[in-house]
Every structure is written in C-alpha cells, then in structure tokens.
C-alpha cells in the first residue's frame, strides 16, 4: 500500500487537524519521498515512518507541534536541515538503521533547540572513534544518545522512548494492584487450607488414641470374665 492510501485509511473519517498520532510504518513511498502528508496536520505530535523506503525527507511539511519522529530502517543519508526548518519543536528523533556515515551530516540538528533524544543505532556513524563524545559536543542540547546520557545512564521510558503504543501507566498500576490483591487472597486461602489439614490430622490422632483405649478396655473385660469363671463353684460346670 502506498503512503497516500495509508494516510487516507489512518484518518478514518477524521480531518487532518484532529490527528495527534500518525503511524505509517511499512507502507511504500514513491521515489523514496514522503507523499500525502500535508501541513493540514497542524496538531500532529507523533509521526512514525519506519521502513517505508525513504531516501529523503525533503517533502516533509511544516508540523509546528510535532515532538516525536520515527524514521528508523530507511535509506536516509543526509538532508537533515529540512527537519530543523519544518519541525521546530521536535524533542525525540529516531534515525536508526539509516545510511548516515559522518558526524557532519548531523550538524543541521544543532538548530533543533528542543531536541532531547537522538537514536542512531545501526548507522555507520556509530563506528567512528569518539562517536558519542563527538555527537554530544556537536549537539549540546541532547540529553540522550542511543538511549543513554553522557554518563552512560539509561533513559527512563518516558524520556528515551518514542510513544505511540503500549499501556498507560494508570492501567499498569491497576494491573499491579489486582495482582497484589489476588496474591493476598491466595495466601489467605492457603492459610485456611493449612489450618484444615492440621485439624484433620489432630482428629485422626484422636481417633487412633480412642480406638487404642477401647481395645485395652475390651482385653481387660475378657480377662476379668475368665478369672470369674475359674473362681466359680464346680456345680456351675
């Protein structure tokens, strides 16, 4: 499916201005360029174009509210100056798996004052000596490069990852609470079962003791009867 048709389907009878997130992963771009995306998407905050065969981002419209852009697994080798011109409020940029070879190709990103996280996994540029130090020096506004800050501390989920899917934090917390409650109920049930087992064992022990006493009593009665018969007068025989 080409990009224009995919955008039409993603709209689902909405107007472009209603859309905040747009995922176009794995569709086809014509001649390696963005098509069908216009400046009418004025409220777009998240855009994902993973593996769409992009060679250039030159056709990218101006998206003043866009904060997070996924461009991984394409064939982009330069021309990043367009991002600085069209996406002034970009905070997260993922260029993993593209054809970026030199630190100099990243220089246009200096103009993205709000850029906080940049991912370049599987790009040739990551093989350069002092790669991380060079990028942080070139882009001082960055907090995270490839998911880690300058001190090699890993980014938290909210800082380092691009949104667009997953479960809300509130839902996660509710799930954990339910699990805790279930665990408490199971523990309570296990305690009750243990108490019942102990009572059964005690009952069995009592029954065994009782039956033992009855046998002793029966034996004593039999002995007494025999003794009486021995002492009885001979005319009874």
TrEMBL record:
<feature type="compositionally biased region" description="Acidic residues">
    <location>
        <begin position="152"/>
        <end position="213"/>
    </location>
</feature>
<protein>
    <recommendedName>
        <fullName>Acidic leucine-rich nuclear phosphoprotein 32 family member</fullName>
    </recommendedName>
</protein>
<dbReference type="InterPro" id="IPR001611">
    <property type="entry name" value="Leu-rich_rpt"/>
</dbReference>
<dbReference type="Pfam" id="PF14580">
    <property type="entry name" value="LRR_9"/>
</dbReference>
<dbReference type="InterPro" id="IPR045081">
    <property type="entry name" value="AN32"/>
</dbReference>
<keyword id="KW-0597">Phosphoprotein</keyword>
<keyword id="KW-0433">Leucine-rich repeat</keyword>
<keyword id="KW-0539">Nucleus</keyword>
<dbReference type="GO" id="GO:0005634">
    <property type="term" value="C:nucleus"/>
</dbReference>
<comment type="function">
    <text>Multifunctional protein that is involved in the regulation of many processes.</text>
</comment>
<keyword id="KW-0143">Chaperone</keyword>
<keyword id="KW-0677">Repeat</keyword>
<feature type="domain" description="U2A'/phosphoprotein 32 family A C-terminal">
    <location>
        <begin position="128"/>
        <end position="146"/>
    </location>
</feature>
<dbReference type="InterPro" id="IPR032675">
    <property type="entry name" value="LRR_dom_sf"/>
</dbReference>
<dbReference type="GO" id="GO:0042981">
    <property type="term" value="P:regulation of apoptotic process"/>
</dbReference>
<dbReference type="GO" id="GO:0042393">
    <property type="term" value="F:histone binding"/>
</dbReference>
<dbReference type="InterPro" id="IPR003603">
    <property type="entry name" value="U2A'_phosphoprotein32A_C"/>
</dbReference>
<comment type="similarity">
    <text>Belongs to the ANP32 family.</text>
</comment>
<feature type="region of interest" description="Disordered">
    <location>
        <begin position="152"/>
        <end position="220"/>
    </location>
</feature>
């Amino acid at each position: 499916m080409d990009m224009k048709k995919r955008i039409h389907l993603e709209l689902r009878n909405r107007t472009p201005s209603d859309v905040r997130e747009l995922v176009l992963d794995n569709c086809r771009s014509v001649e390696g360029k963005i098509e069908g995306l216009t400046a009418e998407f004025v409220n777009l905050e998240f855009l994902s174009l993973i593996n769409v065969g992009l060679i250039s981002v030159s056709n990218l419209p101006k998206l003043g509210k866009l904060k997070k852009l996924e461009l991984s697994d394409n064939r982009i080798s330069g021309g990043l100056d367009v991002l600085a011109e069209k996406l002034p409020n970009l905070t997260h940029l993922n260029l993993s798996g593209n054809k970026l070879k030199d630190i100099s190709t990243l220089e246009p990103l200096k103009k993205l004052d709000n850029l906080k996280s940049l991912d370049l996994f599987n790009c040739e540029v990551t093989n350069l000596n002092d790669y991380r130090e060079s990028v942080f020096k070139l882009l001082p506004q960055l907090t995270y490069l490839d998911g880690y800050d300058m001190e090699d501390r890993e980014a938290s989920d909210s800082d380092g990852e691009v949104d667009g899917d997953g479960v809300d934090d509130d839902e996660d917390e509710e799930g954990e609470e339910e699990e805790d409650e279930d665990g408490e109920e199971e523990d309570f049930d296990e305690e009750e079962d243990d108490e019942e087992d102990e009572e059964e064992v005690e009952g069995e022990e009592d029954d065994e003791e009782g039956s033992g006493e009855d046998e002793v009593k029966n034996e004593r009665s039999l002995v007494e009867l025999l003794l009486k018969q021995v002492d009885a007068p001979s005319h009874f025989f």
